[in-house]
């Protein structure tokens, strides 16, 4: 009986361990053709100022320099706290008319298009090569993303004109198995995302290769995740809201106790 129990326990443990080890790895970014363009708000409407972020947009055909900002793993954008997440267009240095979409999995499960035609023209636009769908600082609201959700982003290269290459944050799931997204923590509440839209290694040609410049400036965005989430993503310890509340509660209780003591003394 005892042996059976132990054997059963060992088998269960091995099964659990096996399930853990063989847990399916994150999949490539799933794209739905049914997505459409949500409302785009101007920077004035949402009170966003893109100017301070333009310095992070590297020059065309120049590999991203060490920006001095906190480098994040774009495949691990997990939010600990609920936040009204928004995504703002910073710039594009691309001949392609790319598309950006997002997904949230975990506590909040939703996904959709963010920008269906990433193109801009005129002053400040790095890649003024056709298309004028966006103005610098244009913003799309993703709505409330609850704590315990994993945010992910994918770029459909030239998707507006029928392109099919989808580049996501999971490097090994990309069609060329190369990194196509960089992410930095900037300021107090923002993540800077930069995408490379060309297939293949730097300068590679032939086959599906597109003589990539690997400049990661083909589509650049700011994601507002809120201060607490950004601090967590940077590895800082941020207490749960409930703990903060109970600490405040404790403080208030001890104040009352002290007041009572001094009342008694009087
Ligand atoms: Ca570029
Ligand atoms: Ca590029």
What does this structure look like?
This protein has 266 residues and is α+β, with helices and mostly antiparallel strands. It folds into two domains: 25-235, no CATH class; 239-266. It contains four helices and eleven strands, in the order H-H-E-E-E-E-E-E-E-E-E-E-E-H-H. It has a six-stranded antiparallel β-sheet with strand order 1-9-10-11-3-6, with helices on one face. Strands 2, 4, 5, 7 and 8 form a five-stranded antiparallel β-sheet that branches. The model is unreliable at 5-25 (pLDDT under 50). Bound molecules: calcium ion (2 copies). Residues 60, 93-94, 215, 217-218 line the site of one calcium ion.
Compact description:
This protein is α+β, with helices and mostly antiparallel strands.
Strand-residue fraction?
Answer: 25-35%
Which class of secondary structure composition applies to the elements? alpha+beta
Number of helices: 4
Q: How helix-rich are the residues, as a percent range?
A: 10-25%
Inertia-based shape: elongated
Uncertain stretches of 5 or more adjacent residues: 5-25
Spatial ordering of strands, largest sheet:
1-9-10-11-3-6
**First-to-last CA distance:** 70 Å
Q: What's the SSE pattern?
A: HHEEEEEEEEEEEHH
Overall number of domains: 2
Please tell me how large the radius of gyration is.
Answer: 24 Å
Total strand count, please? Answer: 11
Mean pLDDT comes to 85
Distinct small-molecule ligands in the complex: calcium ion
Largest sheet: 6 strands, antiparallel
């Amino acid at each position: 009986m005892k042996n059976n129990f132990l054997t059963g326990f060992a088998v269960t443990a091995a099964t659990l361990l096996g399930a853990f080890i063989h847990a399916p790895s994150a999949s490539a970014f799933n794209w739905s053709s049914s997505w459409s363009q949500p409302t785009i708000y101007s920077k004035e409407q949402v009170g966003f100022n893109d100017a301070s972020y333009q310095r992070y947009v590297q020059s065309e055909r120049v590999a991203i320099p060490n920006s001095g900002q906190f480098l994040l793993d774009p495949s691990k954008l997990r939010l600990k706290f609920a936040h009204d997440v928004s995504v703002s267009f910073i710039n594009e240095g691309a001949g392609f008319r790319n598309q950006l979409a997002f997904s949230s999995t975990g506590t909040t499960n939703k996904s959709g298009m963010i920008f269906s035609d990433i193109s801009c023209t005129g002053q400040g636009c790095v890649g003024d090569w056709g298309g004028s769908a966006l103005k610098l600082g244009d913003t799309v609201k993703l709505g409330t993303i609850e704590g315990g959700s994993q945010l992910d982003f994918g770029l459909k290269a030239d998707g507006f004109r029928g392109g099919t290459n989808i580049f996501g944050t999971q490097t090994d799931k990309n069609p060329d198995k190369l990194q196509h997204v960089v992410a930095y923590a900037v300021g107090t509440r923002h993540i800077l995302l930069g995408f490379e839209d060309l297939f293949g290694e730097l300068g590679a040609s032939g086959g599906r290769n597109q003589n990539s410049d690997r400049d990661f400036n083909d589509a650049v965005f700011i994601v507002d995740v809120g201060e607490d989430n950004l601090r967590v993503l940077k590895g800082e310890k941020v207490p749960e809201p409930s703990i903060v509340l109970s600490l405040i509660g404790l403080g208030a209780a001890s104040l009352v106790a002290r007041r009572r003591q001094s009342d008694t003394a009087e």
